[in-house]
Amino acid sequence: MSEPDDGDNVGYGRPPKKSRWKTGQTGNPGRKKARRLRSLKELVDEFLGSSIWVTENGRRRRCTRFEAIFLQLQVKALAGNKRAMNTLLEYVEFSGEGDGGGRVEFQPTPEYARVLAARGDPRGSQ
Q1: Which helix (H) or strand (E) holds 61?
Q2: Where are the domains of the chain?
Q3: For the whole model, what pTM was predicted?
């Protein structure tokens, strides 16, 4: 009547046994491997190191994101923003850590010294 099913049938959804995937074999051997997780330091370094376009005095130029952030801090500090000024001064002090002692002599420009003096900061009176 009907033929016995010996497992050799080939058709839709039943490829020949010799061309079937072996146990544990994947259907996409050239797939992308899982990425390794990057540390927070690597992510921050990559973000701050990438470049962006900034407009300065009507001219466009490329600079790093860190440089753009630092330029914004300078602009806000010169406009009298005390928080930006303190952040900028803390960075200046922090950046001198590798020179031994961890402190740097802060010499503000005359314009910056006037802003500091107007705010009552002792670093502005020299």
Answers
A1: strand 59-64
A2: 35-124
A3: 0.49
